[in-house]
């Protein structure tokens, strides 16, 4: 049985994904700051606009204007897509408050706003970006898994294929809930590494159900006028790319604490 796949907007990445992301999947996009998560999301939405999909982009850390500017640097006209009714950009109180603002980082409010946007865009195949989903549990990492499950379950019937970003930073690894990775149908992980005094970025598909995907880490570049470019597979030593041991230990402890909190939670 052949599976319908959505192009990511980056042909070389589609190839790594055996054609693209299966329709209806929820994919976690994770990685350190500045590694390319938002830029991948922008490509995914730009491709959706081209394919005639209903597109929704939720931005929690950047303003709508910032997303529009970033998209325009890679040749995508998001303002036009918005005025043509192909895209709804939702923000979390980053600028002027209007219909497409969520007033708090509350998961129920997020989901009902997304459904409102989908109803406005109309019936049909849809793409959703939540950038970032981890913002919704910053103050309560233990809720990561439950919140992600809620989002996935409620939005499933609305014909969305979802990219949800999730951050971790070396200093705030507690804020990184390991929730979304487990409920996600796929995980695309970004990495960064300074080599010979230069910042290098990488992408790795860690999980994609129903997909004979690439297992190789690929070096990427973010190019002005073009966006995310896949340079090719790399053979790095694990130690070069892995998070430092101290950080892994911190994440492990945070995750244990989260499990304990969840065990005593009746939400
Ligand atoms: N026009 C451009 N030309 C070249 N590089 C760019 C351009 N715009 C952005 N970049 C690069 O992309 C980086 C931002 O990538 P992106 O916004 O996708 O990061 P991110 O993974 O979403 O980070 P965060 O977790 O902080 O949101 C910038 O720091 C810069 O290095
Ligand atoms: Mg970002």
Rg estimate, integer Å = 18 Å
Class per helix and strand makeup = alpha/beta
CATH topology: Rossmann fold
The tally of beta strands, per DSSP, is: 11
Beta strand %? 25-35%
Helix content: 25-40%
3D architecture notes:
This protein has nine helices and eleven strands. Strand 8 and strand 9 form a beta hairpin. About 3% of the residues have low confidence. The strands form two sheets. A nine-stranded mixed sheet has the order 5-4-6-7-3-8-9-10-11, with helices on both faces. A two-stranded antiparallel ribbon has the order 1-2. Helix content is 34%, strand content 26%. With 267 residues, the chain is α/β, with parallel strands linked by helices. It has one domain: Rossmann fold (3-Layer(aba) Sandwich). The structure holds adenosine-5'-triphosphate (ATP) and magnesium ion. The site of adenosine-5'-triphosphate has 13 residues, from helix 2.
Key terms:
binds adenosine-5'-triphosphate; alpha/beta; binds magnesium ion; 267 residues; two-stranded antiparallel sheet; globular; single chain; nine-stranded mixed β-sheet; Rossmann fold
In short:
34% of the residues lie in helices and 26% in strands. By secondary structure, the protein is of the alpha/beta class.
